[in-house]
Amino acid sequence: MLSFSIERAIILHKNFTIATFHHNVSMYWNPSIYSLLIKSEPVPKPPAFQPQNIPSLFGVCVYVFMCHHSIPGIVTPVRDKSKILCRIFIPVFITVLSFNLLLSTTAIIAFNHIEDIYTLNFLPNNEFIDISQIPYTLALIIGYFLCLFPVFALTSSFPIVGTSLLGNIFSLCNFFSAFGSDKAQNILKYTLPFVVLLPPLGIALITNNVGYLTGFTGAIFGSGIQYIIPALLVFKARRYFTHCVPLKESYLETTTDLQQSDDTTSATVGEQMIQPNSSNNNTENENIMYGSTNDITTHSVSIIGKCSNHHLLSISMHASPFQNFFWIIIALIWALFCTIIVLIDKIHHL
């Protein structure tokens, strides 16, 4: 698309005539120039700023989070993660940003009207297609492939996004005691997939306006996936960790002693964990679930220290810089603001 749009921009700025096209058959492999054969178009002069399009920006930009699904696949194989920010994250994000800026810039200098789906600008006109000529055939194949490319991309990513949303909603429901029974779990198991699938399918069948679809679904459902559900999960997880995992100062002081314990003590502890007393088995399970104050190991203390900044633990080098409750409030306010702005814009056009 970059090469096609650049070639079209050069043709527009050099004022090529239709006779020039007929003498240069090699240009016909570019599907974006066929609209110029019908009528000449002026050089695109897009406005630098359009305030009325700001609400649509909120909904469309939510789809950028799709790129975040690739981050775990990039991070997991890396053994040394001490400098992963400078070595991987920054170069990857700069590369993606540069590509998006280059694609957007070539689009606004090559087309006076950009379709809701940018690839539709490369659909060739069948009136000028002659399948007996190789350049025309290439233009037809390339044009339809580019038009169907968003279908391929969305079809491949929709199961990933749907699975992520299903897992987030299921995890959120498990935080409430009302969904703890087996009957409630079975109901969630068979109803949540429909909750995830029916809204996007219903909206897709109702409207064919892609701009409306991306803005509306991106602002409401995208904000829920990207901001609201993660913020609630973080809030509930921190609250659970703070209240249900009560680490005492004595446990932290004996961490060094636990690390230096001999094999006999470790074997004794292992036997106690493997062969619990049947009379108090349920009590021990409850203590493990809600934060046992009788059994604590060096491994559990080290894991807790790496995963969270508990009020009794020293700050870990891997601790998140967004541990303040203020960041959760900001995420929820931003999600509400984006949703209101997009809804006002969509209702205004009705």
Task: Characterise the protein shown here.
It is a multi-pass membrane protein. It is found in: Membrane. Belongs to the TMEM104 family. This protein starts with a helix and ends with a helix. With 350 residues, it is mainly alpha-helical. About 17% of the residues have low confidence. It has 15 helices and no strands. 66% of the residues lie in helices and 0% in strands. Helix 4 crosses helix 9. It has a domain of 124 residues.
Mean pLDDT: 71
Number of helices: 15
Low-pLDDT regions: 248-256, 262-310
First-last Cα distance: 34 Å
- How can the largest sheet be summarized? none
* Helix and strand composition category: mainly alpha
Region (Disordered): 270-289
Membrane topology: Multi-pass membrane protein
Transmembrane segments: 88-114, 134-166, 212-235, 325-344
InterPro entries: AA_transpt_TM (IPR013057)
Short description:
Pfam families: Aa_trans. The chain is mainly α and 350 residues long. The chain has helices at residues 2-13, 18-23, 34-38, 54-61, 71-75, 84-110, 134-174, 182-206, 210-244, 249-253, 255-259, 263-274, 281-289, 298-307, 325-349.
Write the topology of this structure.
Elements: H1 2-13, H2 18-23, H3 34-38, H4 54-61, H5 71-75, H6 84-110, H7 134-174, H8 182-206, H9 210-244, H10 249-253, H11 255-259, H12 263-274, H13 281-289, H14 298-307, H15 325-349
Helix pairs in contact: 1-6, 4-9, 4-15, 7-8, 7-9, 9-15
Membrane topology: Multi-pass membrane protein
Region (Disordered): 270-289
Family: Belongs to the TMEM104 family.
